[in-house]
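Exercise 3.2. Students should predict the tertiary structure of the chain below and write it as structure tokens, then compare their answer with the key that follows.

Predict this chain's 3D structure.
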Amino acid sequence: MATDTLKSTSSADSATGGLRRLLLDNGALTALIVLVIAMSALSGDFLTTDNLLNVGVQAAVTAILAFGVTFVIVSAGIDLSVGSVAALSATVLAWSASSHGVPVLIAVLLAVVTGIAAGLVNGFLIAYGKLPPFIATLAMLSVARGLSLVISEGSPIAFPDSVSHLGDTLGGWLPVPVLVMVVMGLLAAFVLGRTYIGRSMYAIGGNEEAARLSGLRVKKQKLAIYALSGVFAAVAGVVLAARLSSAQPQAADGYELDAIAAVVIGGASLAGGTGKASGTLIGALILAVLRNGLNLLNVSAFWQQVVIGVVIALAVLLDTLRRKAGATPVAGASQGGKGRQAVTYGLAAVVTVAIVGATSFLHNGSSSTANPKVGLSLSTLNNPFFVQIRSGAQAEAKKLGVDLTVTDAQNDASQQANQLQNFTSSNLGAIIVNPVDSDAASNSVKAADKAKIPVIAVDRGVNKASVDALVASDNVAGGELAAKSIGEKLGGQGKIVILQGQAGTSAARERAEGFAQGLKAYPGIRVVAQQPADFDRTKGLDVMSNLLQAHPDVQGVIAANDEMALGAIKALGSKAGTSVSVVGFDGTPDGLNAVKDGTLYASVAQQPSQLGKIAVDNALKALEGKKVEETIKVPVKVVTKENVAGFTG
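Answer key:
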């Protein structure tokens, strides 16, 4: 009897320990299952075929980058340059094929060679130059991004049509980016598990000195490892540019952090020696599911960053717990381990399908709502102008009884493409988009048009795609007004500097074009310097401070937005509004206050609240099948100290 009881207790303990070990060994998979179940329960729009394919597409670029980063992290290194290398490779492809007529196949090879070259430079600096991987790849991050801007001259370059098909679907439903992700994942798994260099990665990451003493050519292996990372970055860049139909010089900015996060969430250790391709894929899917689900639940983009940060911290904590518990390391695994792993993944899929299928009943019949639903994707909410657009849109939506979902693309064209895809798969009544870039938004808008969802563009148009209406002020005309204001203030004579917007954005290009056209009427005005300050107040302060060292006698400043103008005013100090006249753009509250104070001579105001209000009005009209005007111009006006009191924005 006692023996039976003891056996029973031992069996129970063994089962509990086995479950605990299973969860620890497959923490990322467990987290993915929990996330899928939770999102399915919370949002009826999550568990649809279209949306699940969206998740795959949105994970593709991060996953491909992360596969390359896996090689580096397994070998106890780090690669911060993959996002910039991806942008550079795509830019080289577009520049050579579209701008210089190089055959597409050769252009693709040039893009891959660019990735390899960047990786080899990283590897050489680390292996032979003895630079820490963090420093070497941080330097390459800056160099690659700078070269991308130099080659493209800061503007997007149209992608060759034959390569753009990588962003399409096969059979009208299967996204090509997902197929590329799978192929690159299988290649990464093969390299890690079946090749000499793969075994070398684990050996170097486990103990570099022991690997060297055992006869491994560590330096040459590091060259190959970073070159492989460059190849995967190049492929990711091509896939991303194909999705956006253009090579964006600022594309994939910050993606290196997502790639590293995916690898760590997937179970790899930053200390090296462990990691696998399947874990990295799961990590990328977790990030994509989080962003997709939080978008569908209308969670602020700012809170999304908080949530993802918490997930990364928990992943590292889980890795620590796994090590303390003596869990099986996620390295190249034995044959028996691979068999158990396959069974685990199979059981996980069955359990997930069963639970998700059950939760789907929670949403049966709940998709209908009394209020029309509209999605608003803004290029950024880190700028008062776009915050005012949101405020105007939200106020009008509340007045009209519209459920308005607002997302923040954070000046990332690919992130905006993801958000627009989520809107489309959620079957919203209408979509309002403020494009990060007019070309990059085209494919997403085409998908919405195909789904018969009305699209209203606000502030900036969408190229190569049909929108129901464009609600905007004229950036070129506004730029001309800014130039006229400074010209008249200086009496047609003097030296000025121009602070440009973020390179690659349509607003920056159009306003710069307006400045140039307007200044033609004032040949006595000499532009002594033009520098980008990225629509940012701090960068406006820094850039203006630098320019004053070379041009202390400047008499005027034109800034492409009020934020940069306010930074310039700070740099000018007592000169602002006295010996130096500053003209801004947008008519933001802080800008108008500076006009009242006299430090800002004028701001070309676009009435952003009106833009948001009119966009919602027209979205509702289009949703109800009413006729809307193709172009609705909200007039710009120059606000000075004389008329600022009567301006409401």
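Discussion points: The longest helix spans residues 218-244. The two ends are 85 Å apart (CA to CA).
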